[in-house]
Design brief:
- This protein is α/β, with parallel strands linked by helices.
- The protein is built from 12 helices and 16 strands.
- It has 2 domains: 148 residues, NAD(P)-binding Rossmann-like Domain (Rossmann fold); 245 residues, Dihydrodipicolinate Reductase, domain 2 (2-Layer Sandwich).
- The strands form 2 sheets. A 10-stranded mixed sheet has the order 14-13-12-11-7-10-9-8-15-16. A 6-stranded parallel sheet has the order 3-2-1-4-5-6, with helices on both faces.
- β2, α2 and β3 form a beta-alpha-beta unit.
- α4 runs parallel beside α5, α5 packs antiparallel against α11 and α6 crosses α9.
- It binds nicotinamide-adenine-dinucleotide.
- Nicotinamide-adenine-dinucleotide binds next to α1 and α7.
């Protein structure tokens, strides 16, 4: 079945399988709803697995939200989610389906939440905006740079909102920390470090044979979608897909995108000028094909960023398993979801070297220490998206912003794969004089799952 779509819709041409309820079931408005019917937002969710259900926990707490349709290629995920929505909202059970295109045909749905694996972000987003829906899509924006760019173009062409699940942008303490970095209080911020450290060696997710059949309650061909065809393996499926380059980008894009996103914000940068990476599968003996050890060095005009990741040693950096460290000549700012801390620096005597010009008067550092607790920003992020549906303002994590953050992860992975320093043309979204690296900015989709022409 071709994924190509027109604005006229899908049903009738696509032969969509619709589950338990009719695609045009009565509105599922819960008894708690206080907002006037005209102000209520009617949503569908595509891909309610682990993250999708976390998102629903936040969306369903908003009084003006009704979730009326659920699409998942796994009937159990769709069914369980529809049951949860019914219970939480005390509403009619939303319809369920395997193929989200029936959802997009409904005229009474304003927007969709997309929480499918990374390789299934671009197609439903583009299909949704072409069908007139606004979109909240999970991070990372897409499986590759070209898909992300196509999503932006589709958003521009249709005037639809595409917000991305980089929720830290909506967290108050992340905003304050960014203000501190930008204010110059830390002095010259010349080096930033982001990191993810844990020890899962050597078993990791283990090893599974490839020969198992997909469960009968799953449309596995549709789960694969644009990715290459292959036998079912539970280790490459729900949740664990993120460690395979056919579907995602490993830890670099799974977590690195949250961290690097804040760095771009603080440095007011669209991306690095160059990237170099080294690493490998060093400590885990499992099925993954993405590195378990990775060091990426990015050069920005004003600072160097290193993303450091290891899964074979859990020693925490500065007491934290993950985070962002902004290093300035007057002090350091440590930042993660738990909060931030400003740590003033002190001027040291140079290591064991006698000063040839006699004693030196050290400059004074006047930066005051400070700290604040924080959170991941999920609730205000969802609220911002919902408010943008009415105001038509650009969301906090607009697709273009999140695309650039996602690109830092694609760049890290591409540099790792080619094994050399790459120079990046930010505006053209291509590498400078490197056709081999350029070839990794996109991939040929499996037949029937190509991106539509925008
Ligand atoms: N913002 C965050 O903090 C955050 C946290 C976790 C995950 N995520 C992102 O959320 C996404 C999903 O991750 P997850 O951990 O929930 O994975 P998951 O495997 O638990 O869930 C994905 C769901 O999508 C369904 N699916 C796959 N293809 C589909 C299709 N074509 N149509 C409909 N449904 C389809 C699967 O059956 C599954 O139910 C990933 O991109 C991940 O990076 C974001």
């Amino acid at each position: 079945m071709s994924e190509s779509i027109t604005r006229r819709g899908f049903v009738g041409t696509a032969g969509v399988a619709v589950g338990a309820a009719s695609a045009f079931a009565a509105p599922a408005i819960g008894k708690s709803g206080a907002a006037a019917p005209s102000e209520r937002k009617r949503l569908g969710i595509i891909g309610p697995g682990s993250r999708g259900n976390q998102l629903l926990d936040t969306f369903l707490k908003e009084e003006d939200v009704d979730v009326v349709s659920v699409a998942d290629v796994d009937d159990r995920h769709a069914g369980d989610t529809a049951d949860r929505i019914k219970k939480i909202k005390e509403c009619e059970r939303p319809e369920t389906m395997r193929d989200y295109r029936a959802m997009l045909d409904r005229k009474d749905i304003d927007a969709v939440i997309i929480a499918t694996p990374d390789h299934w972000h671009a197609l439903p987003t583009i299909h949704a905006v072409l069908a007139g829906k606004d979109v909240y899509v999970e991070k990372p924006v897409a499986h590759n740079v070209a898909e992300g760019r196509a999503m932006i173009e589709a958003g521009k062409k249709t005037g639809k909102i595409i917000a991305v699940g980089t929720q830290q942008r909506s967290s108050k303490h992340f905003g304050k920390a960014v203000d501190i970095v930008r204010s110059g209080q830390l002095g010259k911020v010349f080096w930033v470090q982001t990191w993810n450290y844990e020890n899962i060696s050597p078993v990791g997710m283990g090893v599974y044979p490839d020969s198992l059949e997909a469960p009968p309650y799953v449309d596995y061909d549709r789960w694969l979608g644009p990715a290459p065809s292959r036998r079912f393996n539970p280790n490459r499926f729900h949740l664990l897909f993120r460690w395979f380059s056919d579907y995602a980008g490993g830890m670099m894009s799974d977590w690195g995108v949250h961290l690097n996103d804040i760095v771009l914000w603080a440095l007011d940068a669209k991306g690095p000028n160059s990237v170099y990476a080294t690493g490998g599968i060093e400590t885990t003996d499992d099925d993954r094909d993405t590195p378990d050890t990775l060091q990426v060095v990015y050069e920005f005009p004003t600072a160097t960023l290193t993303y450091s990741m290891r899964k074979g040693n859990g020693y925490k950096f500065n007491g934290n398993g993950y985070g962002i460290l902004f290093c300035g000549t007057d002090g350091t700012l440590m930042l993660n979801r738990e909060g931030y801390e400003v740590i003033p620096d002190k001027i040291d005597e140079p290591y064991g070297i006698k000063l040839v010009h006699g004693p030196r008067e050290n400059r004074k550092i006047t930066l005051e220490p400070s700290k604040e607790k924080g959170d991941d920003g999920q609730k205000p992020h969802v609220r911002n998206f919902l408010d943008c549906l009415a105001s038509r303002a650009k969301p906090t994590s607009d697709i273009e912003i999140a695309h650039r953050s996602t690109n830092t992860c694609h760049l890290g992975n591409i540099a790792y794969r080619v094994g050399r320093k790459l120079n990046w043309d930010i505006e053209a979204e291509r590498f400078k004089n490197d056709p081999e690296a350029d070839a990794l900015l996109s991939r040929e989709a499996r037949k029937g799952f190509e991106l539509p022409k925008i």
